[in-house]
Amino acid sequence: MNLEKTIKNINRSLNKKQPTSFNSVWIKYRCKVSYQFIIENIRNELGEPDWDEVVRHLDHNNQKLWFKGVKVKNKIEPYEDKIELEKILSKYKDKLYTFLSQADKSDKQVCDLICIRLVRTAQKGNLLAREKAVIFLNYLIDQWMENDINICPFRGYSELIQENIDRCIRRYRYTGSFISYLHRTFEYAGRGIKPLVAFSLDENSLITEKSKIESVVKDSKTGEIIIYHKRH
Asked: Does 75 fall in a domain?
């Protein structure tokens, strides 16, 4: 048994049984061999079964069923565990730059993975992980406010930015891209915001030092105007 066979087995069972939702307990009783392989071999930095890693390899339609509609009823007791946080940061210490600059698809994936690790730990109640996640996510938001005209309206709304970050950390359930979830949340929330900070396409980018009008691109699929800044 390996990860590829494990994923194939779970996908097959889900497609056959077609549950409205599933979780680790469902896998335990429906895919016993796969479950055993996961708990013994697929673990995160904290030594826990890495269900995020498993579910992100499933078919997209099956990913959306993971814990679908499940609400957390037990009250989460906040705590501070520096060791938990350090295990995550130590593993990815050479990749923390991805919150400031992403050169390729690999950088984007590892940045997303770090986000998920911190968010999951924060959801368990670790206040230190939550604080670190908020700091890193603010780096991403700062870039989006400069580079993406859909996020620009948030400039000057510091409290609203923090509220949306907190909401995303608290509500993230679907085991997909957290960064995409965060971006969509800000994009939708930004549609009703009146910009406080004047935004001119004639001003220079802090990244490229070129006027922003030079980087305007129209998305061929959505028709939206996006401002890209790439280093040369």
From this structure: no
Same structural domain for residues 100 and 155? yes
- 23, amino acid identity: N
Tokens of 209: 């030092």
DSSP 76: P
Which residues are 49's β-sheet partners? 43
Check pLDDT > 80 for residue 120: yes
Is residue 97 located within the same domain as residue 37? no
State the pTM of this model: 0.74
Contacts of 213 (CB under 8 A, 6+ apart): 201, 202
**One domain for residues 16 and 92:** no
- Could you give the angle at the alpha carbon of 167 between the alpha carbons of 218 and 46, nearest 5°? 105
CA 220/CA 6 separation, integer angstroms: 38
Residues 6+ apart with CB under 8 A from 141: 151, 154, 161, 165, 186
Q: What span, in angstroms and rounded, lies between the C-alpha atoms of 47 and 40?
A: 10
**Helices of type H across 124-202:** 127-147, 158-171, 178-190
- pLDDT tier at 231 (50, 70, 90 boundaries)? very low
Instruction: Tell whether 35 and 135 lie within a shared domain.
Output: no
